[in-house]
Amino acid sequence: MGKNYVESLKLIDKNALYSPAEALELSLKTAKAKFDETIELAIRLGVDPRHADQQVRGAVVLPHGTGKSVRVLVFAKGDKAKDAEAAGADFVGAEEFVDKIQKENWFDFDVVVATPDMMGVVGRLGRVLGPKGLMPNPKSGTVTFDVKKAIEEIKAGKVEYRVDKTAIIHVPIGKKSFSTEKLVENFHALMDAVIKAKPAASKGQYIKSVVVSSTMGPGLKVNPVKVLE
Question: Domain of life here (predicted)?
């Protein structure tokens, strides 16, 4: 363990269940790296991701964004391509980007948006975009004819959440440079969205545990009861 990590551990009680505000405030105090660390949530859910009817996936616009500059690649043609360029997309095109990704292993983007009529083209990239979590999806609002709205939301701080095979959701909610108040508002926006996305097939306790951490700092356990208040 590094010196900073050891010092950070002295500030927390590993057995405590903190309120969201307490956990986020401590996460800022334990973020001792020289760079602007990301503050992230790990939410363990009472679902079985092996079943299709217990998948939890969606997107939410965080009130204060993530603090990260997001590069958007849009697959569109004609007027929709012009709309995407006007809305601030970083890259706009069609087959040429499929070739660039396949042949040059090019991944200088963070989010992919596509119009529905382009999904046949984008589908050829399923094997490379899928494992990276970059495949456009209607549920997350990244397959749409309203590319302007999609890009504006992404640039404003829209984040996707998706339960992994261990029933955990990992999502960034801000940076060390954020105030506690901004992180708290982002925290509640995300948690509200995840709670609303509870599958009907999920039985028993839905929110099993919530842990807040900075990139280089220790995890802080949030009281699940406080999350629901």
Answer: Bacteria
Both 58 and 162 in one domain: the answer is yes
Instruction: Work out the average pLDDT over 14-40.
Output: 90
- pLDDT at position 6 is 66
Count of structural domains within the chain? 2
Q: Are 155 and 61 in contact (CB under 8 A)?
A: no
Among residues of the chain, what percentage have pLDDT more than 70?
95
Confidence of residue 8 (pLDDT cuts 50, 70, 90): low
What's the token pair of residue 140? Answer: 């997350």
pLDDT value of position 171: 95
Q: In what order do the strands lie in the sheet with 38-45?
A: 168-175, 38-45, 207-214, 220-222
The pLDDT of residue 111 is: 94
In-domain check, residue 9: no
- Give the pLDDT of residue 106: 96
143 within domain boundaries: yes
Q: In CATH, what number is assigned to the domain containing residue 117? A: 3.40.50.790
Please indicate, yes or no, if residue 6 is contained in any of the structural domains.
Answer: no
Position 3 in a domain: no
Average pLDDT over residues 19-28: 93
